[in-house]
Amino acid sequence: MRHSLAAAAVVVVALLACTGTPARSDEPPDPNAQPRSALIDSLVRRGIRDQRVLAAMRRVPRHEFVPPEVRAHAYDDTPLAIGFDQTISQPFVVAAMTEAARIAPRARVLEIGTGSGYQAAVLVALDADVYSIEIIEPLARRTQALLTRLGYRLHLRIGDGYAGWPEAAPFDAILVTAAPEHVPEALVAQLAIGGRMVIPLGAPGDIQRLDVITRGRDGTTSETLFPVRFVPMTGGSGR
User: Fold this and answer.
1) Cα–Cα–Cα angle for 98, 213, 117, nearest 5°?
2) How far is CA 217 from each of CA 29, 159, 192, 221, rounded to the nearest angstrom?
3) Which residues constitute the domain of residue 77?
């Protein structure tokens, strides 16, 4: 997601988290059940092992987070355009980032780049306390309305994500969905001791990498997962 210097405004989406309800016997079959199940099977084959992450992604209706013209491909393992020159991330990347962040129930999680709201919804489905920042105001407003309609509870801020959300820190996990060239020190400082940040890194046009940064009492450690491609982070000192 894109980020730039802009006055921040905070909007809180305050509804019960969507946990799913049993289908009534008189309800028509869910046409997305089979493709969603096939997607989960493909994530398992690609190495996703965290059963809580798989269960969350099985519950979250990805087709609700994409435009009608691409809804037939909602459960393909591919990114899709959502307007505003943005995309909804590939499901495998969402699953891998979420798994790497090690989200415990009631963990406080910061997401940089709300975008479609799909990643945020997966975090809420994991029973996390989610703080999410999106710089593109019309996209943020649209996503806010969607999350409200679907019944997800999170905190949504419109503004530059490069500096994080200091007044809500420390965070047990931070997920960044845009690629800066260097790790933002402000985000590292907002990690709790033992917290993990999952972040793509790399200059525009270069091969980016997905890193996991863990904050310890004596500094940080870093692990690279695999190559990725994200939109550049353009706010703050992101470039």
Assistant:
1) 35
2) 52, 30, 10, 11
3) 9-22+30-228
What's the rounded Cα separation, in Å, for the pair 49 and 123? 16
CA Rg value for the chain: 17
Domain membership of residue 236 (yes or no) is: no
Across the strands, what pairs with 175?
111, 198
Two tokens, residue 56: 């969350």
| Both tokens assigned to 208 | 């980016």
The first and second tokens of residue 88, run together, are 């909804």
Tell which wins on pLDDT, 133 or 235: 133
- 4, 89, 116, 132: the catalytic one is 89
pLDDT tens-place string over residues 162-183:
999 999 999 999 999 999 999 9
Residue 89 designated active-site: yes
Residue count of the chain: 239
Show Cβ contacts of residue 22 under 8 Å, excluding neighbours closer than 6 positions: none
Share of the chain above pLDDT 70, in %: 87
Total number of domains constituting the chain: 1
